[in-house]
Amino acid sequence: MKQTSHAVLAMAICGVCLAGGARFAHAQVGTGWTEIHPASNIQVEAHEQIKEFPGDSRHATDGGGAYANTGGGEIFQLVNRTSNREERRFHDDYHHGTRQFQADVTIFGPTNEESIHQIFNGSEGPWLIVRQSDDGGGSVRIQTHGASAHVGFIPIGPYGTRFRLNSIEQHQ
User: Fold this and answer.
1) Alpha helices in 7-96, H assignment, sequence order
2) Can you give the residue range of the structural domain that contains 81?
3) DSSP 24
4) Domain-embedded: residue 122
5) Average pLDDT estimate for 86-113
6) Is the whole-model pTM more than 0.90?
7) Position 52 in a domain
8) Is residue 115 scored above 70 in pLDDT?
């Protein structure tokens, strides 16, 4: 996809969602995980309106956001400032158990603190947000919400450097 001079974020993701079980998935953290494929859709926001596309879409474009699924990888791109959201929304609103999410991510600048990964706590909003940051020529900021709020930075190197994101979340 062509990146315009107003490009905010282009991000390539190959994601795996995992839940506890007996089958092993490639490059997981720990053992005993079973790969799952919850229903999902692609959401593109433009002018504060969200348009949804089926989860098996190969391409989705609306306003300033564009999505492509090519060669086993997903590309989420904000191509101008009319959009600030381009994402895959998994419909796996679970209330107990453990989930692991893994993605190989490449961020291309310029960017503006865009979110890469979020874990929500029902209607209370996200309790974990992973965002891109310009610090140190390229880093990831991890922020939790609530009584034990924390912010951490992980240097990833210059824009265009691929890194693996892996998060594990457990509901008691």
Assistant:
1) none
2) 9-110+160-171
3) -
4) no
5) 81
6) no
7) yes
8) yes
